[in-house]
Write a structure and sequence with these properties.
The complex is a heterodimer. Chain A is mainly alpha-helical. Chain A has 9 helices and no strands. In chain A, helix 1 crosses helix 6 and helix 3 packs antiparallel against helix 4. The longest helix of chain A is centred in the middle third of the chain and has 39 residues. Chain B is of the alpha/beta class. Chain B is built from 2 helices and 8 strands. Chain B has an 8-stranded mixed β-sheet, with no helix packed on it. In chain B, strand 3 and strand 4 form a beta hairpin. Chain B is elongated and about 90 Å long. In chain B, 21% of the residues are buried. Classes of the chains: A mainly alpha, B alpha/beta. The interface between A and B is medium-sized, with 32 and 26 residues.
């Protein structure tokens, strides 16, 4: 009786250890993978591949990111106005909209949208390449798939997410202006001048950009690695696509807290 | 070939839009000024209490912004607050030596800023000088306390 309980305990510890080992192994594989791909800075032929990925990952994500930015800016202005008017402080609307967009909402929401729109597509594309053995064939004819397939996608992600984040902030601030100034009647001068006096370029815009660079790294890394590392079946592809969205959303939100604590929390 | 050109054009536009957006955020939203930062000079002032004055707060004269608060530290000699301000250089040599600095509040609960008003002394303040005549921030609690204690006396 006691012996059986003991052996069961041992078995469950073994299971835990095996899972732990496989997690560490995957992390190690992912690190080696990203290190080997990132050195393939696009040049020459790679630049053309990178351009095509920029088009898919960046330009085609513009519509969803800009439209979301517009609505988020408008909602911020509307909500902020109804609260600030109680204190007679509706002049601070511009400052509220711009700071919340630049510091938090633009990097985070753009990264989440990017993970859903571009990350999942990257995973599915690379996964299908793996399932149809295109990656292996490339290796057979002496083309490094990490350089040919993965590196342009990684670099396209690094470059385009910060650009999308800038677009998100600009459109959001404009949306806040539309609702706050044009519709609700906050004075135009106080909207812009309060914003200018409270937003610092390096502390607010710069830190927002650093956040979005970190998110770009994490989201594209997860997306590309999940595609490269999946089990090459149709079920494996669907699982990996789901994992990409779930992992990158969690990573973005978790990292956002850490970065905010370091940047603005006085840690 | 044609298709690749349109892709390149789209990506170019995208990057250009990003750069323009960053310029907009810099100039319009965070109020950076293009070119060399405008010429400034520094003045100091000691206040007994600065309330909630913060670095980057406005320094005004007759309501017009003429500079910003650069730094605030504790002066350990007198145990009051030493406020360093940067003002537009066109005011250098124009402010009289008996200029007063007061910490004022925008609205009842608004942000605090420094208001300067000139006196009549023929000598002028130069870069690095200290304003002697200062007026501390109005702290609402102290005001209420004074009001209540004077009510009790009556």
């Amino acid at each position: 009786m006691f012996l059986r309980l003991f052996s069961r305990l041992v078995a469950s510890i073994v299971r835990l250890g095996r899972r732990g080992c496989s997690v560490i192994e995957a992390l190690g594989r992912a690190s080696i993978f990203v290190a080997r791909s990132v050195v393939g800075v696009p040049s020459g032929e790679g630049l053309r591949l990178w351009l095509r990925q920029m088009h898919f990952v960046g330009v085609l994500s513009l519509a969803i990111v800009l439209v979301s930015g517009l609505f988020i800016g408008m909602v911020l202005a509307l909500q902020g106005y109804t609260i600030l008017i109680d204190f007679g402080a509706e002049q601070a609307l511009g400052q509220m909209v711009s700071l919340s967009l630049l510091r938090e909402l633009a990097p985070v929401v753009a990264a989440l949208l990017f993970a859903g729109r571009a990350g999942s597509a990257l995973t599915a594309e690379i996964g299908l390449m793996k399932a149809t053995e295109q990656l292996t064939s490339m290796e057979m004819i002496g083309v490094d798939p990490l350089r040919r397939v993965v590196a342009p996608r990684l670099w396209a992600g690094f470059v385009s997410l910060p650009l999308l984040t800038i677009g998100f902030s600009v459109v959001g601030i404009w949306g806040g202006y539309l609702v706050g100034v044009q519709w609700l009647g906050v004075s135009e001068g106080s909207y812009w001048s309060n914003m200018q006096s409270s937003v610092a370029f390096f502390a607010d815009v710069g830190n927002g950009m650093i956040k979005s660079l970190v998110f770009a790294l994490v989201v594209t890394w997860i997306a590309v690695f999940q595609g490269y590392d999946l089990i090459p079946t149709s079920e494996g592809i669907s699982r990996a696509t789901t994992r990409t969205v779930v992992y990158s959303s969690l990573a973005v939100l978790g990292l956002d807290f850490v970065l905010t604590a370091v940047m603005f929390g006085g840690l | 070939m044609q298709r690749s050109k349109t892709v390149e054009f789209g990506v170019g536009l995208f990057i250009l839009a990003g750069i323009l957006g960053l310029v907009f955020l810099g100039l319009r939203v965070s109020g950076l000024t293009l070119g060399a930062p405008s010429e400034t000079f520094q003045l100091e002032a000691n206040f007994a209490n600065i309330g909630t004055l913060k670095p980057r707060a406005r320094v005004t004269m007759a309501g017009v912004t003429v500079g910003r608060v650069e730094s605030i530290d504790l002066d350990t000699q007198w145990f009051d607050a030493r406020v360093k301000m940067r003002l537009d250089s066109e005011l250098e040599g124009q402010l009289s030596r008996d200029t007063t600095a007061a910490i004022l509040t925008a609205g009842l609960l608004g942000e605090q800023y420094v208001g300067l008003s000139v006196g009549g002394d023929p000598e002028a303040l130069e870069d690095g000088d200290t304003i002697r005549d200062t007026q501390s921030a109005l702290v609402l609690e102290e005001l209420i306390q004074q009001f209540v204690s004077s009510m009790v006396k009556d």
